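Q: What structure does this chain adopt?
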Amino acid sequence: MIIVNCETAHEKVHCFEKEIILNGPPSQLRGHITLSNTVAEFMLVQELPMKQYGKEMPLQAGLSLNMPLSPGENRRQSLCMTLPANTAPGTYRQKVEVGGEEKNLTMIVQETLEIELIPENLLFVGIAPGMSHTKEVLLVNKGNVPFSVPVLRHNMSLDMDLVCRNLSKALKETPDGDSKATLDAFFKGLKTDMTDWIEVRIKEAGTVVAPGESVVLHITFILPKDIHPNREYEGDLRILDQLLSYMLIPGPKNDVVKKTTQV
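A:
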Protein backbone atom coordinates (compact mmCIF):
# COMPACT_ATOMS: atom_id res chain seq x y z
CA MET A 1 0.00 0.00 0.00
CA ILE A 2 1.20 3.49 -0.86
CA ILE A 3 0.93 6.05 1.93
CA VAL A 4 0.39 9.60 0.68
CA ASN A 5 1.34 12.42 3.04
CA CYS A 6 3.09 15.78 3.01
CA GLU A 7 6.49 14.17 2.42
CA THR A 8 5.83 11.38 -0.08
CA ALA A 9 3.76 10.16 -3.03
CA HIS A 10 1.36 13.11 -3.32
CA GLU A 11 2.35 13.43 -6.97
CA LYS A 12 0.70 10.02 -7.65
CA VAL A 13 -2.79 11.34 -6.85
CA HIS A 14 -4.89 13.27 -9.35
CA CYS A 15 -7.29 15.99 -8.14
CA PHE A 16 -10.25 16.79 -10.44
CA GLU A 17 -11.12 20.18 -8.90
CA LYS A 18 -9.59 23.29 -10.44
CA GLU A 19 -10.13 25.01 -7.10
CA ILE A 20 -10.84 23.48 -3.68
CA ILE A 21 -13.32 25.62 -1.75
CA LEU A 22 -14.09 25.44 1.97
CA ASN A 23 -16.76 27.58 3.61
CA GLY A 24 -18.15 28.04 7.11
CA PRO A 25 -17.26 29.19 10.63
CA PRO A 26 -13.62 28.83 11.71
CA SER A 27 -14.35 25.69 13.71
CA GLN A 28 -15.97 23.88 10.78
CA LEU A 29 -14.92 24.88 7.29
CA ARG A 30 -16.51 22.37 4.94
CA GLY A 31 -16.19 21.41 1.27
CA HIS A 32 -15.42 18.51 -1.08
CA ILE A 33 -12.50 17.08 -3.03
CA THR A 34 -12.37 14.41 -5.77
CA LEU A 35 -9.21 12.33 -6.07
CA SER A 36 -8.05 9.57 -8.38
CA ASN A 37 -5.50 6.82 -7.78
CA THR A 38 -3.26 6.90 -10.87
CA VAL A 39 -1.17 3.82 -10.00
CA ALA A 40 -1.84 0.08 -9.85
CA GLU A 41 -1.51 -0.18 -6.07
CA PHE A 42 -3.80 0.43 -3.13
CA MET A 43 -3.32 3.88 -1.65
CA LEU A 44 -4.13 5.71 1.57
CA VAL A 45 -4.15 9.48 1.15
CA GLN A 46 -3.50 10.71 4.68
CA GLU A 47 -2.86 14.35 3.82
CA LEU A 48 -1.76 16.69 1.05
CA PRO A 49 0.90 19.38 1.57
CA MET A 50 -0.16 23.03 1.74
CA LYS A 51 1.70 26.26 0.93
CA GLN A 52 1.04 29.82 2.08
CA TYR A 53 -0.44 32.13 -0.53
CA GLY A 54 -2.27 35.45 -0.41
CA LYS A 55 -3.90 36.79 2.75
CA GLU A 56 -2.00 35.88 5.89
CA MET A 57 -3.53 33.35 8.23
CA PRO A 58 -2.32 30.48 10.45
CA LEU A 59 -0.79 27.89 8.10
CA GLN A 60 -1.43 24.20 8.56
CA ALA A 61 1.19 21.72 7.37
CA GLY A 62 -1.27 19.65 5.38
CA LEU A 63 -4.84 19.09 4.28
CA SER A 64 -6.04 16.05 6.26
CA LEU A 65 -8.01 13.42 4.29
CA ASN A 66 -7.41 9.79 5.38
CA MET A 67 -8.97 8.60 2.10
CA PRO A 68 -8.36 4.99 0.91
CA LEU A 69 -8.19 4.49 -2.87
CA SER A 70 -8.14 1.26 -4.84
CA PRO A 71 -6.06 1.09 -8.04
CA GLY A 72 -7.65 3.40 -10.63
CA GLU A 73 -10.44 4.46 -8.26
CA ASN A 74 -12.02 7.93 -8.34
CA ARG A 75 -13.61 9.10 -5.09
CA ARG A 76 -15.34 12.28 -3.90
CA GLN A 77 -14.97 13.00 -0.19
CA SER A 78 -16.12 15.66 2.22
CA LEU A 79 -13.50 17.94 3.74
CA CYS A 80 -13.53 19.59 7.14
CA MET A 81 -10.89 22.00 8.40
CA THR A 82 -10.62 23.68 11.79
CA LEU A 83 -9.00 27.10 12.20
CA PRO A 84 -8.43 29.10 15.40
CA ALA A 85 -11.78 30.28 16.77
CA ASN A 86 -10.82 33.97 16.52
CA THR A 87 -9.82 33.80 12.82
CA ALA A 88 -11.29 37.00 11.34
CA PRO A 89 -14.07 36.68 8.74
CA GLY A 90 -12.85 36.89 5.17
CA THR A 91 -11.48 34.91 2.24
CA TYR A 92 -8.11 33.20 2.61
CA ARG A 93 -6.10 31.44 -0.09
CA GLN A 94 -3.47 28.76 0.04
CA LYS A 95 -2.01 26.16 -2.34
CA VAL A 96 -2.32 22.37 -2.17
CA GLU A 97 0.29 20.16 -3.86
CA VAL A 98 -1.32 17.20 -5.59
CA GLY A 99 -0.65 15.30 -8.81
CA GLY A 100 2.54 17.21 -9.48
CA GLU A 101 0.83 20.61 -9.56
CA GLU A 102 -0.48 23.26 -7.19
CA LYS A 103 -4.22 23.61 -6.73
CA ASN A 104 -5.86 26.73 -5.31
CA LEU A 105 -7.43 26.25 -1.89
CA THR A 106 -9.94 28.97 -1.00
CA MET A 107 -11.25 29.23 2.56
CA ILE A 108 -14.26 31.47 3.16
CA VAL A 109 -14.53 32.19 6.89
CA GLN A 110 -17.97 33.31 8.05
CA GLU A 111 -18.83 35.56 10.98
CA THR A 112 -19.43 33.64 14.20
CA LEU A 113 -21.05 34.97 17.36
CA GLU A 114 -20.23 32.74 20.31
CA ILE A 115 -20.08 33.81 23.93
CA GLU A 116 -19.64 32.02 27.23
CA LEU A 117 -21.06 33.14 30.56
CA ILE A 118 -19.33 32.01 33.74
CA PRO A 119 -21.26 31.03 35.78
CA GLU A 120 -24.42 30.23 33.84
CA ASN A 121 -26.60 30.04 36.96
CA LEU A 122 -26.97 32.56 39.78
CA LEU A 123 -28.50 32.22 43.24
CA PHE A 124 -29.82 35.22 45.20
CA VAL A 125 -30.58 34.74 48.88
CA GLY A 126 -32.97 37.29 50.34
CA ILE A 127 -36.25 38.64 48.99
CA ALA A 128 -37.88 41.94 49.90
CA PRO A 129 -39.65 44.70 47.94
CA GLY A 130 -37.06 47.01 46.40
CA MET A 131 -34.09 44.85 47.46
CA SER A 132 -31.13 44.77 45.06
CA HIS A 133 -28.61 42.02 44.38
CA THR A 134 -25.37 42.49 42.44
CA LYS A 135 -23.41 39.61 40.89
CA GLU A 136 -20.21 39.41 38.89
CA VAL A 137 -20.36 37.30 35.73
CA LEU A 138 -17.47 36.63 33.35
CA LEU A 139 -18.35 37.08 29.68
CA VAL A 140 -15.96 35.51 27.14
CA ASN A 141 -16.00 36.27 23.41
CA LYS A 142 -15.30 32.87 21.80
CA GLY A 143 -16.36 33.98 18.32
CA ASN A 144 -14.53 35.89 15.59
CA VAL A 145 -16.39 39.24 15.62
CA PRO A 146 -16.43 42.02 18.24
CA PHE A 147 -19.69 42.94 19.95
CA SER A 148 -21.03 45.41 22.48
CA VAL A 149 -22.34 44.33 25.87
CA PRO A 150 -26.11 44.86 25.53
CA VAL A 151 -28.21 47.26 27.55
CA LEU A 152 -30.78 45.36 29.64
CA ARG A 153 -33.56 47.04 31.57
CA HIS A 154 -36.19 44.54 32.71
CA ASN A 155 -36.69 40.83 33.20
CA MET A 156 -39.70 38.71 34.14
CA SER A 157 -39.30 36.33 37.07
CA LEU A 158 -41.63 33.44 37.75
CA ASP A 159 -42.92 32.26 41.09
CA MET A 160 -41.95 28.59 40.99
CA ASP A 161 -45.29 27.43 42.49
CA LEU A 162 -47.50 30.00 40.72
CA VAL A 163 -49.37 27.63 38.41
CA CYS A 164 -49.81 24.70 40.79
CA ARG A 165 -50.90 26.88 43.70
CA ASN A 166 -53.53 28.79 41.76
CA LEU A 167 -54.84 25.78 39.85
CA SER A 168 -55.32 23.84 43.08
CA LYS A 169 -57.03 26.81 44.70
CA ALA A 170 -59.35 27.32 41.72
CA LEU A 171 -60.36 23.65 41.63
CA LYS A 172 -61.18 23.64 45.34
CA GLU A 173 -63.12 26.92 45.39
CA THR A 174 -65.33 26.47 42.30
CA PRO A 175 -68.28 24.07 41.71
CA ASP A 176 -67.60 20.70 40.12
CA GLY A 177 -68.16 20.72 36.36
CA ASP A 178 -68.13 24.52 36.05
CA SER A 179 -65.00 24.81 33.89
CA LYS A 180 -65.59 28.50 33.12
CA ALA A 181 -65.67 29.42 36.80
CA THR A 182 -62.58 27.31 37.42
CA LEU A 183 -60.62 28.97 34.60
CA ASP A 184 -61.77 32.42 35.69
CA ALA A 185 -60.60 31.78 39.24
CA PHE A 186 -57.34 30.27 37.97
CA PHE A 187 -56.48 33.24 35.76
CA LYS A 188 -57.52 35.71 38.44
CA GLY A 189 -55.15 34.03 40.87
CA LEU A 190 -52.31 34.11 38.32
CA LYS A 191 -52.86 37.81 37.70
CA THR A 192 -52.91 38.55 41.43
CA ASP A 193 -49.76 36.58 42.22
CA MET A 194 -47.62 37.62 39.25
CA THR A 195 -45.00 40.19 40.14
CA ASP A 196 -43.89 43.22 38.17
CA TRP A 197 -40.66 43.26 36.15
CA ILE A 198 -37.29 42.94 37.85
CA GLU A 199 -35.14 45.92 36.95
CA VAL A 200 -31.77 44.87 35.49
CA ARG A 201 -28.66 47.01 35.12
CA ILE A 202 -25.31 46.03 33.62
CA LYS A 203 -22.55 48.44 34.60
CA GLU A 204 -20.44 47.51 31.55
CA ALA A 205 -23.28 47.96 29.00
CA GLY A 206 -21.87 49.29 25.73
CA THR A 207 -18.36 47.90 26.30
CA VAL A 208 -16.88 46.41 23.12
CA VAL A 209 -15.48 42.89 23.57
CA ALA A 210 -13.02 41.80 20.86
CA PRO A 211 -12.60 38.15 19.76
CA GLY A 212 -10.68 36.20 22.40
CA GLU A 213 -11.22 38.85 25.08
CA SER A 214 -13.23 38.72 28.31
CA VAL A 215 -15.00 41.21 30.52
CA VAL A 216 -16.42 40.96 34.04
CA LEU A 217 -20.04 42.10 34.09
CA HIS A 218 -21.46 43.69 37.24
CA ILE A 219 -25.18 42.87 36.97
CA THR A 220 -27.63 44.40 39.42
CA PHE A 221 -31.13 43.01 39.94
CA ILE A 222 -33.64 45.31 41.68
CA LEU A 223 -36.69 43.43 42.93
CA PRO A 224 -40.20 44.82 42.28
CA LYS A 225 -42.33 46.39 44.99
CA ASP A 226 -44.96 43.64 44.81
CA ILE A 227 -42.63 40.67 45.25
CA HIS A 228 -43.57 38.21 48.00
CA PRO A 229 -40.76 37.76 50.57
CA ASN A 230 -41.64 34.15 51.41
CA ARG A 231 -41.83 32.66 47.92
CA GLU A 232 -39.21 31.39 45.49
CA TYR A 233 -38.69 32.85 42.03
CA GLU A 234 -36.66 31.96 38.95
CA GLY A 235 -35.92 33.51 35.58
CA ASP A 236 -33.63 33.68 32.57
CA LEU A 237 -31.76 36.75 31.44
CA ARG A 238 -30.86 36.77 27.73
CA ILE A 239 -27.41 38.16 26.96
CA LEU A 240 -26.89 38.06 23.19
CA ASP A 241 -27.46 34.38 22.27
CA GLN A 242 -27.02 32.93 25.78
CA LEU A 243 -29.33 32.63 28.79
CA LEU A 244 -28.19 33.51 32.29
CA SER A 245 -30.47 31.63 34.69
CA TYR A 246 -31.12 32.83 38.23
CA MET A 247 -33.07 31.79 41.31
CA LEU A 248 -34.35 33.93 44.18
CA ILE A 249 -34.95 32.30 47.56
CA PRO A 250 -35.96 33.82 50.91
CA GLY A 251 -33.17 34.46 53.36
CA PRO A 252 -33.23 34.04 57.14
CA LYS A 253 -36.02 36.04 58.76
CA ASN A 254 -33.66 38.67 60.08
CA ASP A 255 -32.43 39.30 56.52
CA VAL A 256 -35.85 40.13 55.08
CA VAL A 257 -35.72 43.66 56.42
CA LYS A 258 -32.48 44.41 54.58
CA LYS A 259 -33.00 46.40 51.40
CA THR A 260 -29.66 45.81 49.70
CA THR A 261 -27.19 42.95 49.46
CA GLN A 262 -23.85 43.10 47.71
CA VAL A 263 -22.33 39.84 46.50
